Amino acid sequence: MVVTEAVPPRLRGRLAVWLLEVRAGVYVGNVSRRVREMIWEQINMLAEEGNVVMAWATNTESGFDFVTYGSNRRMPIDLDGLRLVKFLPIDTVSDK
């Protein structure tokens, strides 16, 4: 799953090649690790000032893992091996 905000149309088009866009900026699909890593490279090259989160099923306590790109109030943190999300104050995001 990939969720995008404020990314260029060319990235959205690129994501639609490998994933199904079920809502505006929300992409789902079942891809291999290799394809997932290639999609993440594309995101890093094309997302510009936007922000993106990519999540996938994996063999962890929570059953999934995720990575983020760009500024957002939601910051991933690791708590004893469990990935959680910490919210920053609203003004912190605009300062970045």
What do these coordinates show?
The chain is of the alpha+beta class and 96 residues long. It has helices at residues 9-18, 33-46, 90-94, and strands spanning 2-5, 20-23, 26-28, 51-57, 64-69, 74-79, 82-87. It has a single domain, classed as Alpha-Beta Plaits. Helix content is 30%, strand content 38%. A 5-stranded antiparallel beta sheet has the order 2-3-1-4-5, covered by helices on one side. The chain has a two-stranded antiparallel sheet with strand order 6-7. Helix 1 runs antiparallel to helix 2 (33-46).
Assembly form of the protein: single chain
Rg calculated over all Cα atoms: 14 Å
Strand-residue fraction?
35-45%
Under CATH, the topology is which? Alpha-Beta Plaits
Q: What percent of the residues sit in helical stretches (DSSP H or I)? A: 25-40%
Tally of individual helices: 3
The total strand number stands at 7
Class inferred from helices and paired strands: alpha+beta
Low-confidence stretches: none
Main-sheet strand order equals 2-3-1-4-5
Distance between the termini: 26 Å
Please trace the helix and strand order, writing H or E for each element.
EHEEHEEEEH
- Mean pLDDT equals 92
What is the CATH architecture annotation? Answer: 2-Layer Sandwich
Main sheet attributes: strand count, strand direction, barrel closure: 5 strands, antiparallel
CATH class: Alpha Beta
Q: Structurally, how many domains make up the residues?
A: 1
Which outline best applies?
Answer: globular
